[in-house]
Amino acid sequence: MTQTFSSSDTDVAAAADRLSRAADSGVPCSPVRDLIGRDDVAKAYAVQQVLTARRTESGARVVGRKIGLTSPAVQRQLGVNRPDFGVLFDDMVFSGGDTIPLEVVMQPRVEAEIAFMLGEDLAAGPLDAARVRQATGYVVAALEVCGSRIENWDISFGDTVADNASAGVFVLGPRRVTLAEVNPVEVEMSMIIDGREVSTGNGAACLGDPVEAVVWLARTAVELGQPLRAGDVVLSGALGPMRPVVGGNVVKATLTGLGAVTVTFEEGAAS
């Protein structure tokens, strides 16, 4: 059954307006949990849908989804037992080697992930690991630069879901690898900032297996009547802890079997 979230609630509209003002002004706002609650899933995704509709109406194009809260440690920190998802837009995409202006992401924090590039729709049938593997055209090493419109990252589950799962921008590495060549759960990750290792992890840290994270997203997307489609990018979740970045930082993540992805942050003051 298709599930939709109502955006008629005045609290939902107020929360969307608060987050919109923060995004437009570049000034972080207070949390929105005073309006929608800490863990009201329906209201939180309703806010996200309102903001997504505003973006697409203004000309942005959806290019995929991101999965967040895939780490048990982060779930415990926020008092939840489930991941969340956000929407990726065309103006969020960077390539390895690019320089990212700091002003495009508020309060930026970076994490390393595996990005799945879908070659087929995930809209029907048994949406299991075998189907996800079949539908995946290739995977690449990726960096997600998360950003929060909420001051000091003071977020509950409801806050981050409403705020598009704290999405900022993402960086795709150059090496395209099929799932016949690499098993995501076995990938080992090391991330360095300015030559110093700041984060390590592996595929098992992402819901036990990045493929299973995509299975969760595919099923959830179908339930919402917004299935994943061929051509979509799916950021499957962090392989290790995220780290804050500032102007001038050079970030490089190396993922076994997938190679490295590097990005530079433009000099300047972070929002």
Keywords, please?
Fumarylacetoacetase-like_C, alpha+beta, Fumarylacetoacetate hydrolase, domain 2, 271 residues, 7 helices, five-stranded mixed sheet, 2-keto-4-pentenoate hydratase, lyase, 2-oxopent-4-enoate hydratase activity, Fumarylacetoacetase_C_sf, 13 strands, disordered N terminus, eight-stranded mixed sheet
Short structural description:
By secondary structure, the protein is of the alpha+beta class.
Q: Give the low-confidence spans.
A: 1-7
- Describe the main β-sheet briefly: 8 strands, mixed
**What overall geometry do the principal axes of the alpha carbons give?**
globular
Structural class label: alpha+beta
CATH superfamily, by name, is Fumarylacetoacetase-like, C-terminal domain
| CATH architecture group name | Alpha-Beta Complex
Strand content: 25-35%
Order of helices and strands: HHHEHEEEEHEHEEEHEEEE
Give average pLDDT, whole number. 93
- Helix content percent band: 25-40%
CATH fold-level label: Fumarylacetoacetate hydrolase, domain 2
CATH class: Alpha Beta
Give me the Rg, rounded. 17 Å
Distance, first to last CA: 41 Å
Number of strands: 13
**What is the number of independent domains?**
1
Number of helices: 7
